[in-house]
Amino acid sequence: MRTDSDLPPGLRELLPVNAEIVVQAPGRANLIGEHTDYNEGFVLPAALELRTVVAGRRSDRIRLRSIGRGRPITVDPATGRGPIKGWGRYVTAVVRALREDGRAVRGIDGVIASNLPSGTGLSSSAALEVAVALAVVDEPMSSVELARVCQRAENVHVGVRSGIMDQLASLSARGGAALFIDCRSLETSDVAIPDDLRLLVVDSGHRRQLGRGDYNRRREECDEAARLLGVAALRDASAELVATANLPPLLAARARHVVTENARVLGAVEALGSDDRARIGELFAASHASLATDFEVSTPALDALVEIASHTDGVIAARMTGAGFGGCTVNLVEVGRAEAAMAAIASAYLERTGREARAWLSAPAAGALQAAEPTMRA
Ligand code: GLA
To answer: 322 CB less than 6 Å from ligand 1?
Structure first.
């Protein structure tokens, strides 16, 4: 069994043996608190053992090859000039965002290796942004400062108006715990996950397009609901205000999701604290239902995975995770029954939908700034 300080099997061999810099950043599964981060609310993500590693030697320029993804890209650390398409645009975006934040940026000649699937809602882009930022920034920065820069890279230079959850989880989560984030104050605290539980992430096999489209539209709807309710952010709205304010039905539904979801995050923190597994299951189920009906970001494939999981032995809780529009579910499973649960869910899903579900089992892992080794800075 690997520990958080090891590089995942299969990645270490891909890295240059003479690397001076090795940094790694994990993906995340959000346990609960979906579409609440950009409403200044609460979230509870956990980092995964799946991660992205950047390794190389110091150089005048930034030259990175992503294993399995063709030719290397180069970005000028002094100007931020670099590719604006493909995976390389994330490197350009991070360098530009660091420079706009007034940070010193230095070069690296190296490789990027990852066992984090992209486009499945497990924050492969945030992991790439965080790993690149750590590899090129030339001054100490706090996790919140780094998360903000990486979020800016995504918002301004990639064009997705995402919140701060993914980047902060990738940086700050602690092994064995989920990270509670108050997305207004950006204060965080660790919420221990019982030792005998694992995260089971199941990919519905449906690609999502987290472009400028649906995600950004949800965000605009939330902003508009907050404006009509007369609050600074939906974080400040009560269930009663939403119910009585006479909002257009669609905006009322969006606001209702955010307000009830914030309450569910607080409930889940409490339920994890008292190890009340039945309650955790109920909260996950209610979150999924709210995302499906009020926020309208689930899909029939995700609904099927959650429904199947709810009848599967060893599964404590199941819901869709991340932005939605396809992607993955997250399940809390008992470690002794995890492999069997994974197989049972995949086979029932295949039978019902004709689709293969890929699945990953992970302990709650450590974020980039929490893993002691082998992150080295030269
Ligand atoms: C994506 C975004 C996050 C968050 C989730 C939904 O992962 O990057 O900031 O908004 O969707 O909870």
So the answer is: yes
